[in-house]
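testing teh design pipeline on a random one, pls ignore if ur not involved
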C-alpha cells in the first residue's frame, strides 16, 4: 500500500474553525458569484437543487449552462433526492497539513457532481446521501456521506 493510499484511510474529513467560531472548508469559506444562487438557497434549506431541462427532462450538475440534448439555454432548478454513488475520490493536502477529501459522485438523477466526501472507507459504487453544512461564515453547502443501509 502506498503512502498516498494509506492517507485516504488515515485521514477523515477536515474542517477548520474560522475566526467567527463556525467552520469553513480547508480552502476557506464558500462565496456565491450569482450564477448558482438557487443551489445555495436550496443548501441553506437542506435541499439539493440542481439544473434540469424542462423540455427533455435531463438533469445536470450545478454549473451547467445549457442542455446539449435539445440545445436550450433555459434550464430550471429542481430539487434532487440527494442520493448518489461514489464514482471517484482524492484527498488534497494543504501546506499546513490539513486534508480535504473530494469526490466525484453520480446523483440518483444521473448527473455527476464534484463535492466534499465524508467517509473513512471510500470505494467506487459506495451509496451516499447529501448532508448540509451551515457555516457561520460563507454559504451553506452539501457534503456526501455513506448512506445508511
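output:
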Amino acid at each position: 500500500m502506498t503512502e498516498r493510499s494509506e492517507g485516504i484511510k488515515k485521514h477523515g474529513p477536515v474542517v477548520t474553525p474560522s475566526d467567527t467560531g463556525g467552520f469553513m472548508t480547508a480552502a476557506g469559506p464558500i462565496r456565491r458569484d450569482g450564477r448558482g444562487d438557487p443551489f445555495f438557497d436550496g443548501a441553506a434549506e437542506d435541499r439539493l437543487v440542481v439544473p434540469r431541462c424542462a423540455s427533455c427532462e435531463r438533469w445536470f450538475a450545478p454549473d451547467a449552462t445549457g442542455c446539449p440534448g435539445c440545445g436550450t439555454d433555459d434550464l430550471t432548478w429542481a430539487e434532487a433526492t440527494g442520493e448518489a454513488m461514489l464514482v471517484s475520490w482524492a484527498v488534497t493536502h494543504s501546506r499546513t497539513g490539513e486534508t480535504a477529501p473530494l469526490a466525484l459522485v453520480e446523483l440518483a438523477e444521473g448527473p455527476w457532481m464534484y463535492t466534499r466526501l465524508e467517509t473513512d472507507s471510500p470505494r467506487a459504487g459506495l451509496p451516499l446521501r447529501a448532508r448540509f453544512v451551515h457555516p457561520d461564515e460563507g454559504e451553506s453547502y452539501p457534503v456526501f456521506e455513506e448512506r445508511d443501509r
